[in-house]
Amino acid sequence: MRITNYELFCTFAQNLRKMRYFVWFCYDGTNYHGWQVQPNGITVQSELERCLSLLLREQIQVTGAGRTDAGVHARQMAAHFDTDAVFDAALLTKKLNGLLHHDIAVDRIEPVASDMHARFSATSRTYHYYIHTKKNPFIQQYSQEMHYLLDFEKMNEAGCALMEYDDFGAFCKAGSDVKTTICHVTHAQWHQTSPSEWYFEITANRFLRNMVRAVVGTLIEVGRGRMSIDDFRQVIEGKQRTQAGESMPAKALFLEEVKY
After folding, report:
1. Is 69 a catalytic residue?
2. How far apart are CA 30 and CA 181, in angstroms?
3. pTM over 0.85
């Protein structure tokens, strides 16, 4: 079908009227098949789009700051959408929270420049992975219980080594359709919050699919004494996922912060 110049002009004019908004929110990923829309499962993105579309009475598509896997949580997540609807941001936030399930909470909606992009404009992302070494029924849903002694000093030494490299193919899920495995890690450290509770904090400009859980699984191998610091470096330099440790369970992983 031939598109006329008039139709092109109307499309262009309509796009000029659209405003871009950022949504800042958090979610418990336990009951979702990850962030990205899936054909056979409920996702955080699909729920956010469904509710925004109902409230704004137009088909809304949102673009997130990243793509968390099934079961992964976010204390802070950002997404943008474009619309020509006129609304009160505070009122829309309130209505959106009333419509969304209890495990997704919107903090605020705000207008941004048209070239602001939730994914590509982000300068860094920070993840936390939580573990505990003593059985605790009150945190088991969001923390991974470990059944052996770990040398956190060596694990931190290995974590520092991450900042000496920029190719993390060794920690990328096999079959991922990424164009590059280059990432710039600026922080990687284990923190103790109680005698039996720890979390691993890692910050980078971007992350590969399954990267954080694979990194943690490999650091656990170091902590158990099954891998030396030199072995850890060789894993990174080898760029082979099969040489790294296992991927840790998703329930203990949180996207903590996105910076722009």
Report:
1. yes
2. 28
3. yes
